Amino acid sequence: MNIRENIRPGGRSARVQASVHKAVRDLLSKMDRNEVTIPLIATEAGVTPSTIYRRWGDLQELLADVAVERLRPDAPPKDTGSARSDLEHWAEQYADEMASGPGRAMIRDVLSSVGADTRNAGKCCGYTREQVQAIAERARDRGEEFPDVETVIDEVVAPIMYRILFDDAPPTSAKVLSLVERLFPQRR
C-alpha cells in the first residue's frame, strides 16, 4: 500500500504538503541542493522530520514530489493562430525550460526518486500530453490537421528530452523548429 495515495487532498494533509513544498523551494533558492536535509526542511516547514519521512519516505521522494509539482504547467499553451506555430512556440518554450539549470535539476529529481514505480515520471509525461492535446484540440476546432499526440511525443518531445539528458548542449531553437517542421512537411 502506498501511503501517499491514501492521503486526503484537503485539510491538514494539504496544509502540510503546501508548507513542506514551500520549505523545499525556499531552501533550494538559498542553498545548494546537497546541503538540503529533511531536518532543515522540517524546521523551515514547521513540522517534525517524522512527518516528512512518514509522508514521503526519504529526501529523494520529497524532492521528486516538489519537482513534479513545479513541472506542472500553469497555463494552457499559447494560441498563436495556427497549429504549427502553436506547437513551435510550445516546443521552444518546453526545450528552454527543461534545459535550464532548474529544469535539469527537476528532471534529475523526478528520474532519481527511489519509488519502484514510475508515478512521478508518469505525471510529468501526462502534463506534456495534456499540453500537446490542448494544441491538437485547438487545431481541430480551427479545422486544421494535426498529428497524433503520441507522434508529437515521439518526434518532438523525445528528441528534446534525449538531448537535454544525454548531450552536452541542449537542443537549439533551430533544432526544435526542425523537429516540428518534420510533422508539417508540405505546409508553409
Brief overview:
By secondary structure, the protein is mainly alpha-helical.
For the record, give the distance between the C-alpha atoms at the N and C termini, rounded to a whole number.
53 Å
**What is the number of helices?**
9
CATH class of the largest domain: Mainly Alpha
Categorize the overall geometry: elongated
Radius of gyration (CA) equals: 19 Å
Instruction: Tell how many strands the DSSP assignment holds.
Output: 0
Q: Class by helix and strand content?
A: mainly alpha
CATH superfamily of the largest domain: Tetracycline Repressor, domain 2
Q: Per DSSP, what share of the residues sits in E-state strands of 2 or more residues?
A: under 5%
Largest sheet descriptor: none
- In the CATH hierarchy, the architecture of the largest domain is Orthogonal Bundle
* Number of structural domains: 2
Mean pLDDT: 87
* Uncertain spans: 1-8
**CATH fold-level assignment of the largest domain:** Tetracycline Repressor, domain 2
Percent range of helical residues = 55-70%
Tell me the series of helices and strands, N- to C-terminal: HHHHHHHHH
Please, could you describe this protein's structure?
The structure is a single chain. The protein has 188 residues and is mainly α. The chain folds into two domains: 3-57, Arc Repressor Mutant, subunit A, CATH 1.10.10.60; 73-181, Tetracycline Repressor, domain 2 (Orthogonal Bundle). Helix content is 68%, strand content 0%. It is elongated, with a radius of gyration of 19 Å. The model is unreliable at 1-8 (pLDDT under 50). Residues 14-74 form the HTH tetR-type domain. It holds the Pfam family TetR_N. This is AcrR family transcriptional regulator. InterPro entries: Homeodomain-like_sf (IPR009057), HTH-type_TetR-like_transc_reg (IPR050109), HTH_TetR (IPR001647), Tet_transcr_reg_TetR-rel_C_sf (IPR036271), TetR_C (IPR011075). Residues 37-56 bind DNA.
